[in-house]
């Protein structure tokens, strides 16, 4: 792990000195976190309040607007603050702590300081009223020097107020700034270095800056890490197979003939694209627009086939003749057995003994498809033990066998490989929304998360698009505060499971805990490393859904929209009443699977008179 | 030089290392087992910290681990059992653990306390060379522990050299592509692999593990290599229900042929 920080949605990029509407709209498309309007008459980039107002109106709400003022009368600034046009006031003159204090009662304050040789002595007096400090190079005329001060001066900064850095930040110095270790560095403020002329921003230069600032969150590092999570914690016995995959997977996935084979099977065999269905009754009930991404209509009844086809084709290109797989609910096992039959490969599926009992029809499907089903009898006899057994079998059969992992878990490159194969889901969502709504992104995507493969697929194209909120529904079981749960991100801690560093449910001794969920597919004590990363940087929101909430949501969808969902997907549906959305917002629920396999649970519930 | 390094300096051939799971069959068997090992001629011990999901191990070791965890074995308990062990035995002790328990315990704290208790080395099968080299090596070295890494017949020569560089005790040669606990004799391919690696003349001595379970396989494994590690076979022997001393005595003579 390098020293470069992981810059995320939380890292501020303020583009200052906006003067012109069309140019501002182009800048906004690059998604800076803040845009600044200079209301200081002596600045070359000064705009009137009316101009600022009319430009700000054209910009998306999630970009924060900052009014930059210098030594204005207090009453005027308070008036500005109360106009609600701006999210921040940046005080760029010699305003006193008392002045800042008063302004801060009306609006968030950024207090700017010109730095020459050292930090101002009285910084601490500003500490309790500023959201950010901004450290700029000192000039006669309050900013705009376009030159850097010596950043070493900041080593002595130890207050709790995060700060933005300003003054001559160009592309050559950005990497050095990114490795700068003061943890209060919250972002940068750019202006003259990214302009064609004063007030007109150069979009290409800004875009290059943003690429440097925010390497894509969804992109895995060479060693297989997303931030602190991922890697390949495997015994030497698996090294050959896993390295072979890591060295070859991207080359194969990008190969045009592979793409052709993969796309053709997705279309004609899986039945893609799956529909994006506007659930009108649910929308009316919850007061915002709800679409269902119908992965339940895929061949074999869930999203699982997307990944299985990808991996099986890839395995063939690596010369493998046999596949092994683990399965929880049986969906991944059935998908693997199906593709093995299609492509003429031998298939062995490991399934926890407990799961074999609760998913009997899927066991018979696998057998009918010609697969061998081996019960995992160790440990808790569920999904994690099926994974253990599959890995052990792989250790003994490295030569001609590919381990087809069914979720976005396991050692690198599995999480990234699975994410790429499942990303067809979000790719289609973007296209379908463009057709139906005239915009290529929703306001939120919801998916259930066990290991997290359907969720990563539904999130994928939106992970680096901050306009889209990402929601994961974890299996809360009997409640995340009980022992009977699988809400890994809610209650788990950092550790290693099945070859990846992630968040998992474990004892304080590092022994992996038993997971519990009514849905066998979410009954896993770990979670894919990308989800652990999204959770830790707060890019995704992961909430636990109890067994009962999931059951209620299953019956609700059935009766409102005439679709019987899988219990896993019902967890995602159960988040709908918990979201706070506006009537114009568009929310996509990834309906990952259909409910056939869960009929016995539904039947028992109906026979008991509870539904 | 720690006890592992001096063992290999003084004895070149036929080194017998035996694995047992801490806390199995009973929580407090650790020290009596170590004493019996030393008394009956075991050269080195691989002491396993039980883990719920031991990927590289077969059913025998997993079962012993499950029981040991149920008995209450944990890193803290084990280290406190070992506290005065150096007043009783001088046999080199290698702790074997999966990475997760040591990570949760605090890797540095684990190394420090293990070293203070008289442990000589570590085997962490799922801590790969890359992670070890970039993050954990300085910690292990700070506490003067040997770090013993695994190779298999699939490990390319270049990687074997790299692992030899990173290791400072012995190289753990996994005899076959399987988990622990195999019961057949060594094949020609396995013998060829032992010979091939021994001819690479590495810095570290070679210990063969996995599938060594009786006099014949011990002899085969040590034909080209310095010694062998036996695990599952000893755990199976522990099930006879005899006292620790008798179990160890009978087991060692069944491997070495000495009465």
From TrEMBL, chain A:
Q: Name one GO molecular function term.
A: phosphoribosylanthranilate isomerase activity
Instruction: Report any Pfam family annotated for this entry.
Output: PRAI
Modified positions (N6-(pyridoxal phosphate)lysine) are: 304
Residues forming the Tryptophan synthase beta chain-like PALP domain are 271-593
Going by the entry's taxonomy, the superkingdom of the source organism is recorded as Bacteria
Q: Which InterPro entries match?
A: Aldolase_TIM (IPR013785), PRAI_dom (IPR001240), RibuloseP-bd_barrel (IPR011060), Trp_synth_b_CS (IPR006653), Trp_synth_beta (IPR006654), Trp_synth_beta/beta-like (IPR023026), TrpB-like_PALP (IPR001926), TrpB-like_PALP_sf (IPR036052)
Q: Which GO terms describe its cellular component?
A: cytoplasm
Q: Which reaction does it catalyse?
A: N-(5-phospho-beta-D-ribosyl)anthranilate = 1-(2-carboxyphenylamino)-1-deoxy-D-ribulose 5-phosphate; (1S,2R)-1-C-(indol-3-yl)glycerol 3-phosphate + L-serine = D-glyceraldehyde 3-phosphate + L-tryptophan + H2O
Give, as in the UniProt entry, the pathway in which the protein acts.
Amino-acid biosynthesis; L-tryptophan biosynthesis; L-tryptophan from chorismate: step 3/5; Amino-acid biosynthesis; L-tryptophan biosynthesis; L-tryptophan from chorismate: step 5/5
Keywords for this protein:
Amino-acid biosynthesis, Aromatic amino acid biosynthesis, Isomerase, Lyase, Pyridoxal phosphate, Tryptophan biosynthesis
Q: Which cofactor does it need?
A: pyridoxal 5'-phosphate
Q: Where is the N-(5'phosphoribosyl) anthranilate isomerase (PRAI) domain?
A: 14-211
Q: Which HAMAP family match?
A: PRAI (MF_00135), Trp_synth_beta (MF_00133)
State what this protein does.
The beta subunit is responsible for the synthesis of L-tryptophan from indole and L-serine.
Subunit details for this protein?
Tetramer of two alpha and two beta chains.
Q: What is this protein called?
A: Multifunctional fusion protein
State the species of origin.
Answer: Acetobacteroides hydrogenigenes
Lineage per the UniProt record: Bacteria, Pseudomonadati, Bacteroidota, Bacteroidia, Bacteroidales
In the UniProt record, the gene name given for this protein reads trpF
UniProtKB/TrEMBL annotation, chain B:
Q: Which GO terms describe its molecular function?
A: tryptophan synthase activity
Query: Which domain of life does the UniProt lineage start with?
Result: Bacteria
| InterPro entries xref list | Aldolase_TIM, RibuloseP-bd_barrel, Trp_synthase_alpha_AS, Trp_synthase_suA
Q: What is its EC number?
A: 4.2.1.20
Q: In which pathway does it act?
A: Amino-acid biosynthesis; L-tryptophan biosynthesis; L-tryptophan from chorismate: step 5/5
- What function does the entry list? The alpha subunit is responsible for the aldol cleavage of indoleglycerol phosphate to indole and glyceraldehyde 3-phosphate.
User: What name does UniProt use for this protein?
Assistant: Tryptophan synthase alpha chain
Q: Which reaction does it catalyse?
A: (1S,2R)-1-C-(indol-3-yl)glycerol 3-phosphate + L-serine = D-glyceraldehyde 3-phosphate + L-tryptophan + H2O
Q: Which EC class is the enzyme in? A: lyase
- Native species: Acetobacteroides hydrogenigenes
Q: Which Pfam families match?
A: Trp_syntA (PF00290)
Locate the active site.
Answer: 46, 57
Matching PROSITE patterns: TRP_SYNTHASE_ALPHA
**KW Signal (keyword) present:** no
Under the subunit heading, UniProt states:
Tetramer of two alpha and two beta chains.
Name the CDD domains for this protein: Tryptophan_synthase_alpha
Task: Respond yes or no to whether keyword Transcription is given for this record.
Answer: no
**Could you tell me the keywords of this UniProt record?**
Amino-acid biosynthesis, Aromatic amino acid biosynthesis, Lyase, Tryptophan biosynthesis
> NCBIfam families annotated for this entry?
trpA
Classification lineage: Bacteria, Pseudomonadati, Bacteroidota, Bacteroidia, Bacteroidales
């Amino acid at each position: 792990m390098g020293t470069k920080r992981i810059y995320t949605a939380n890292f501020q990029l303020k583009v200052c000195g906006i003067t012109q509407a069309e140019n501002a709209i182009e800048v906004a498309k690059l998604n800076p976190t803040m845009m600044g309007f200079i209301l200081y008459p002596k600045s070359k980039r000064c705009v009137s309040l009316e101009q600022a107002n009319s430009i700000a109106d054209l910009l998306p709400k999630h970009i924060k607007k900052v009014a930059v003022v210098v030594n204005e009368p207090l009453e005027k600034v308070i008036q500005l603050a109360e106009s609600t046009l701006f999210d921040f006031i940046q005080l760029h003159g010699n305003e006193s702590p008392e002045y800042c204090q008063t302004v801060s009662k009306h609006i968030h304050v950024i207090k700017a300081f010109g730095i020459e040789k050292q930090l101002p002595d009285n910084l601490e007096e500003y500490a309790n009223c500023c959201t950010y400090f901004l450290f700029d190079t000192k000039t006669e005329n309050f900013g705009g020097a376009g030159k850097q001060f010596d950043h070493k001066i900041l080593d002595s900064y130890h207050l709790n107020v995060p700060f933005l850095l300003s003054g001559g930040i160009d592309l050559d110095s950005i990497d050095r700034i990114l490795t700068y270790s003061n943890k209060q560095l919250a972002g940068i403020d750019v202006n003259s270095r990214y302009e064609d002329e004063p007030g007109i921003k150069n979009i290409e230069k800004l875009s290059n800056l943003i690429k440097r600032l925010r390497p894509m969150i969804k992109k895995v590092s060479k060693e297989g890490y997303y931030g602190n999570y991922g890697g390949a914690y495997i015994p030497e016995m698996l090294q050959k197979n896993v390295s072979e995959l890591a060295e070859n997977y991207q080359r194969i996935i990008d190969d045009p003939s592979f793409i052709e084979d993969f796309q053709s099977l997705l279309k004609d065999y899986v039945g893609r694209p799956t529909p994006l269905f506007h659930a009108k009754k649910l929308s009316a009930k919850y007061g915002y627009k709800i679409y269902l991404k119908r992965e339940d209509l895929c061949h074999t009844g869930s999203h699982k086939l997307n990944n299985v086809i990808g991996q099986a084709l890839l395995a063939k290109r690596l010369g493998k003749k046999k596949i092994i797989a683990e399965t929880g609910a049986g969906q991944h096992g059935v998908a693997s057995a199906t593709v093995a039959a299609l492509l003429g490969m031998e298939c062995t599926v490991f399934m926890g003994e407990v799961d074999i009992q609760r998913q009997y029809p899927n066991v018979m499907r696998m057998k009918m498809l010609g697969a061998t089903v081996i019960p995992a009898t160790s440990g808790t006899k569920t999904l994690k033990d099926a994974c253990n057994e599959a890995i052990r079998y792989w250790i003994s059969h490295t030569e001609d066998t590919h381990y087809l992992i069914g979720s976005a878990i396991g050692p690198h490159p599995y999480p990234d490989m699975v994410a790429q194969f499942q990303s067809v889901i979000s790719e289609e969502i973007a296209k379908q929304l463009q057709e139906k709504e005239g915009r290529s992104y929703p306001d939120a995507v919801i998916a259930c998360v066990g290991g997290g493969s359907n969720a990563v697929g539904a999130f994928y194209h939106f992970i680096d698009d901050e306009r889209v909120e990402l929601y994961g529904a974890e299996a809360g079981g009997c409640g995340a505060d009980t022992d009977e749960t699988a809400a890994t991100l809610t209650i788990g801690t950092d550790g290693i499971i099945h070859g990846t560093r992630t968040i998992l449910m474990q004892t304080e001794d590092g022994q992996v805990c038993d997971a519990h969920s009514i849905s066998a597919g979410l009954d896993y004590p770990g979670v894919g490393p990308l989800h652990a990363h999204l959770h830790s940087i707060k890019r995704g929101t992961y909430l636990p859904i109890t067994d009962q909430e999931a059951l209620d949501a299953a019956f609700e969808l059935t009766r409102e929209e005439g679709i019987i969902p899988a219990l896993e997907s019902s967890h995602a549906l159960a988040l709908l009443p918990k979201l706070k959305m506006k009537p114009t917002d568009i929310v996509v629920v990834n309906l990952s699977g259909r409910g056939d396999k869960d009929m016995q649970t539904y039947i028992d519930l109906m026979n008991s008179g509870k539904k | 030089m720690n006890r592992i390094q001096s063992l290999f300096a003084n004895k070149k051939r036929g080194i017998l290392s035996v694995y047992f799971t801490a806390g199995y069959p009973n929580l407090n068997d650790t020290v009596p087992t170590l004493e019996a090992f030393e008394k009956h001629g075991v050269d080195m011990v691989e002491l396993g910290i039980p883990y719920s999901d031991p990927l590289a191990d077969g059913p025998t070791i997993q079962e012993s681990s499950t029981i040991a965890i149920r008995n209450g074995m944990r890193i803290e308990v084990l280290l406190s059992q070992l506290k005065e062990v150096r007043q009783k035995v001088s046999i080199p002790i290698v702790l074997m653990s999966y990475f997760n328990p040591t990570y949760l315990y605090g890797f540095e704290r684990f190394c420090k306390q293990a070293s203070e208790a008289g442990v000589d080395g570590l085997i962490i099968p799922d801590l790969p060379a890359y992670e070890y080299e970039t993050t954990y090596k300085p910690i292990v070295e700070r506490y003067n522990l040997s770090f013993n890494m695994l190779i298999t017949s699939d490990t390319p020569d270049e990687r074997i050299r790299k692992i030899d560089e990173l290791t400072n005790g012995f190289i753990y040669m996994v005899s076959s592509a399987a988990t622990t606990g195999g019961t057949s004799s060594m094949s020609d391919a396995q013998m060829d692999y032992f010979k091939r690696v021994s001819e690479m003349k590495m810095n570290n001595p070679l210990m063969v593990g996995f599938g060594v379970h009786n006099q014949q396989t011990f002899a085969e494994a040590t034909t080209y290599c310095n010694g062998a590690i036996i695990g599952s076979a000893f755990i199976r022997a522990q099930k006879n229900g005899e006292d620790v001393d008798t179990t160890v005595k009978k087991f060692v003579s069944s491997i070495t042929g000495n009465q």
